[in-house]
Design goal:
The chain is an alpha/beta fold and 246 residues long. The protein has helices at 2-11, 40-61, 77-86, 94-100, 104-119, 134-137, 139-153, 167-175, 178-184, 201-219, and strands at 64-70, 90-91, 126-131, 228-230. This is Phosphofructokinase domain-containing protein.
Length: 246
Amino acid sequence: MLPSLQKRLLKQNAPTKVVGVPVTLNGDLKNQFVETNVGFDTICKVNSQLISNVCTDALSAEKYYYFIRLMGRKASHVALECTLQSHPNMVILGEEVAASKLTLFEITKQISDAVQARAEQDKYHGVILLPEGLIESIPEVYALLKEIHTLLRQGVAVGKISSQLSPWASALFEFLPPFIRKQLLLYPESDDSAQLSQIETEKLLAYLVEAEINKRQKEGTYKGEEIQCHLPFFRLSSSWIPSIKV
């Protein structure tokens, strides 16, 4: 759009300068020339206010764990900034997961350990934040997505993909709950990334943590009360942001 506008202005000999301003809610275009992106500060303040309300609700009810998914594909800047502003009990950053090569089991264990430590202090509530791009930061899930996307681009029917996965990918796929399997089978974006806004990573982690805590309770290693993992009535992902026509 900008090149065509420039050509039109040059043709009309209009003394006008065209300046491109980077705009992204994810805040992932920061560099030595751009201190912050248009929209990043606003979305962090709005999200932080909503998260703070959820934190207050969790503290008041004293019996729920809330899992909140925030926007942020390759970068977890929104999740980090909202953590600094709203002070939830835990945040999972995609960059740290990728750098440490944490598995889905290890992430579940980390959250479950935190839940157990809080239970030992008679605290059965909390708020956990995560970016929507977290699912692609988990090595084995990322590899599974690559296999699925390759098969989809080859024209393999969705119903036959599970039978054509490699043995390890098939085992992981069958381990995941049905709602996540369905979402992982969505056709990829043009850049071959998954439709992250449609994958309920927060629901997956809530499901796995609740199962892990119930398992520990049966084994006798967790002696607190049962926890209830809930999702807030909103999800602070890119799909939550309303479109605005100017």
